[in-house]
């Protein structure tokens, strides 16, 4: 069974249109408030200039005064911009730390790259690297003859060895062999 919606479609549409109209009115009112605040701020910070009836010296003093005010405002603007840049950089770093702590940072798939020891040394040392490093030349070599001398029993068939060592004769041979190696 499907549940019937509590609000009909026409009622929903009417409510949506009312909400959009209200939001539009509030947006227009907000724009007007910002303009009004801007005019108030400018009237407070920059009063209208009265230049009528001023001599040349007084006009020059007025210009110097205005330039000094402009310099102060530029310094304030520069300081505020520097603070904003610092804060945005700090926010970005903190966001990265938060992502790292959450563990949602996606690591890229890394490919295995084969690099020789010479290539690593060349990349680290640059043109200073002249000696080729052959790691295999320094390894100790093992001869196969030595390994064959140590294990002659393994080369023969194990069945023959079991048959030869079975019974009393085999035990005697083992006993004699152990006695001979001990002396």
UniProtKB/TrEMBL annotation:
GO molecular function: actin binding
Keywords from the named record: Acetylation, Actin-binding, Muscle protein
Entry-linked Pfam families: Troponin (PF00992)
Coiled-coil segments: none
Region annotation (Disordered) ranges: 142-183
Top-level taxon of the source organism: Eukaryota
Signal sequence range: none
Family membership: Belongs to the troponin I family.
Name of protein: Troponin I1, slow skeletal type
Organism: Haplochromis burtoni
